[in-house]
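Changelog note: in this version the structure field was regenerated for every chain. One regenerated record is shown below for reference.
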Amino acid sequence: MRTRDEVECWLTDMDGVLVHENTPVPGASELLQQWRDLGVPFLVLTNNSIFTPRDLSARLRASGLVVPEQSIWTSALATADFLRQQKPGGSAFVIGEAGLTTALHEAGFIMTETAPDYVVIGETRNYSFEAITKAIRFIRDGARFIATNPDATGPSTEGVLPATGAISALISKATDKAPYVVGKPNPMMFRSALNRIGAHSENTGMIGDRMDTDIVAGIEAGLHTVLVRTGISDDTEIERYPFRPDEILDSVADLLADGPVEAEMPEGEVSHGL
């Protein structure tokens, strides 16, 4: 098993790792600054396809975190990258927001409501019965079914909201076809992120707060995996899974060069500082 000493590039989840409900996680700002000072290539990943990287960069800056837009990789960007490779100059009927439509436009895709090559489902706060009905009919007529991510719900100040996975399930039931899901836990999102920064799985680490997306995808992509306890997963949740991350830390503060590095490790392993 590789150690943290061998990691030269980093991928990190955003929500639950760097920020929690728009409040920076202690140590997150310092870690980002450490990477910039050392010239460490990194990308901040998110399954959320609503916002463009520019939007997310501004939102993070308002929370006190400096992340350039070129250092953000969304499921919308990964989806657009995948479709550009599959069918350059193709067409799509899209249910989603600016983050997804902008990514597809920049990938050379045409948005259409006439015999699209693909139906692409992403997050939106305005799911309409009419749009869902069109998506179902296009898929039944032969359009390929793509989803940006599998998340069934998303957060809001009022409680959970239906998200991409829930709408995709509705469409799947009506078409008897399952979508190809590009975002986490599909390791393809990590591979496209690695290509974005010219990194290799052998020397890249992944920091996440979810065992069922961040860690399993990191393992399948061949990355050094770090789970932090500042988001979804606690020790009880961790024990539910048959796989283990390379490291389990309290927060990203434990990754600081001059900070605490003691961490619970899988049996037989020893934590290593940067």
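Spot check on this record: The chain has nine helices and 15 strands. Confidence is low (pLDDT under 50) at residues 260-274.
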